[in-house]
Amino acid sequence: MDGELRKRGTSDGAVSLRDVSKSYANGVVALDRLDLDVRPGEFVSLLGPSGCGKSTALRIIAGLSEPTGGSVVWPQPDTSRRAREIGFVFQEPTLMPWATVAGNVRLPLDLKHIDAATADPRVAAALARVGLADFAGVYPRELSGGMKMRVSIARALVTEPMLLLMDEPFAALDEITRFKLNDDLLLLWQSLSKTVVFVTHSVFESVYLSSRIVVMTPRPGRVFAELAIDAPYPRDHRFRTSAEYGALCRRASEALAAASGGEQ
Amino acid sequence: MSAEPSAPARGEGALRIVLPIALLALGVLIWDLVVRLKGIPPYVLPGPGLVFATLVSDWPILSESLLVTLVTTFEGFLLAVVGGVGLALVFNLSRVVEYSLYPYAVILQVTPVVAIAPLLLIYLPQQAAVLACAWIVAFFPVLANTTLGLNSVDHNLIDLFRLYGAPRSQVLWRLKLPAALPYILGGMKIAGGLSLIGAVVAEIAAGAAGAGSGLAYRISESGYRLNIPRMFAALVLLSVVGILIYFALSLLSHLLLRRWHESAVEREA
Fold it and tell me: Do residues A212 and A94 both lie within one domain?
């Protein structure tokens, strides 16, 4: 129904944080004057140690948390709500156990009162994209951790958001599953040309996935350094074992260590 | 929630039915033998045969009383579920109402119903008083469990609903109520038995005042008349009702939860 919008809209998914601060009632300053520009179509990772406020930054972009200072700037303030449509993937799969896989993926459409005739093909398409076309009628408890996370990604994609926010989505998965999901996420990102903001504390994961890494300092959270990862896509296991990858990981690790300021 | 391998589970399932029945048969046999061998008169302890015969011969009276008690229990239970879940929803929507009313819900629960029943019988028509007792005893477990369930929703899921701009009504219907369902069913399982107890207590109190027609009234009336076999027969009926209520609610819970909730899912090792 809005296919044209979808095609045209690929370039306006970016967002900026200006001077964003967040402090909590207990005195913890999670973010202190954070400036972050997310460019359209990029895959940017927020890399930092635990407690550096990277998840807080993500929640502020999503509107789940209000900044105590500064602002979130959208490119076209109120032209289209579509531009602001966001897909969010939590650290846990966060599925409703009482609903089937298809029911979970359909949730964002149900909440917008989109009728079944429109919703069903979109749900099927989203499931097919994450390789779960045959699991529509299955309940989440019957799935493995990796498959649950795929459902969660399908749910985030079903509204065709411009911006995909991912909060350490693969942190709880085993390495083999994580590598597989990393590869599949990159393929999705390339084929759908979304903007992705990916929060992680894994140097290796951030280098493998990102076109740009933003390294953050802990308490209070600030941008410490930015690393452009220029290695061409598509990336695969050859990139993962290349000298270039190793060198980039070393640079990212050094930046992360410097950002952490020997706090360990 | 135990993980049982499927083949032995079937054997174990059969044992779970056979063992209690065997024990019951043994108990009845011993009861019968003791009554026969000791020559105990029926007005002290009737044998199982006599109790069964009384059950058959007094069925017209007993069935009428059974119906009265069943209707009271069912109505009390229904009101408890509606009231408990409804009040929990109101509490969930409004802190002010919760803080104001919750202490009184607790007071209602901790005051023994035996002590309230005679008072209620003074102020209310008898049928209403009995119903009120059944409700008072049964509603609190539903309220407490539903409240717990509504507060146990995954916070990330609440965030997800917020992200998609879901209004409170959708959060309630699509998220909080389904998440609370296992808790509500747990509360209902307790409430089912308790509403029977509440009805019985009130009927006994009413019976002491000389009015009534329920099963518990029959028990106390038969006691006064030293009609001990009928007392036993009514008691057997009450137990059967209690067991049936429990099984009906367990079945309901199983049917609603078997696809997704850990408590009802059968695992294969």
Answer: no
**Which chain B residues touch A97 with a CB distance below 8 Å?**
260-261
Are B178 and A107 in contact (CB < 8 Å)? Answer: no
What is the domain extent for residue A114? 87-159
Q: Among A45, A38, A36, which Cα is nearest to A209's?
A: A45
pTM exceeds cut of 0.90: no
State whether A12 and A72 are in the same domain: yes
Do residue B160 and residue A63 have CB atoms under 8 angstroms apart?
Answer: no
Q: What is the CATH number of the domain that holds A194?
A: 3.40.50.300
Which residues of chain B are within 8 Å of residue A63 when distances are taken between CB atoms?
162-163
Query: If contacts are CB pairs under 8 Å, which of residues 13-72 in chain B contact chain A?
Result: none
The pLDDT value given to residue A5: 35
Mean pLDDT of A171-185: 89
User: Same structural domain for residues A60 and A112?
Assistant: no
Q: Is the per-residue pLDDT at A2 higher than 70?
A: no
Distance from CA of A239 to the nearest CA of B (A): 34
Pair A173, A237 in one domain: yes
- Low-confidence residues in chain B, pLDDT < 50: 1-5
Please answer yes or no on whether B156 and A92 come within 8 Å at the CB atom.
yes
> Are A214 and A127 within one domain?
no
B265 touches A at CB < 8 Å: yes
Identify the domain boundary among A132, A159, A186.
A159
Question: B46-257: what CATH class?
Answer: mainly alpha
Q: Which of A129, A159, A189 is the last residue of a domain?
A: A159
Using the predicted structure, report yes or no on whether residue A7 has a pLDDT greater than 60.
no
Q: Chain A residues with CB inside 8 Å of B3's CB?
A: none
Tell me the three-class secondary structure of chain B, residue by residue: CCCCCHHHHHHHHHHHHHHHHHHHHHHHHHHHHHHHHHCCCCCCCCCHHHHHHHHHHCHHHHHHHHHHHHHHHHHHHHHHHHHHHHHHHHHHHCHHHHHHHHHHHHHHHHCCHHHHHHHHHHHCCHHHHHHHHHHHHHHHHHHHHHHHHHHCCCHHHHHHHHHCCCCHHHHHHHHHHHHHHHHHHHHHHHHHHHHHHHHHHHHHHHHHCCCCCCHHHHHHHHHHCCCHHHHHHHHHHHHHHHHHHHHHHHHHHHHHHCCCCCCCCCCCC
Minimal C-alpha gap between A98 and chain B (Å)? 5
Q: Which of B161, B166, B178 sits opposite A98 (nearest CB)?
A: B178
A227 with A97, same domain? no
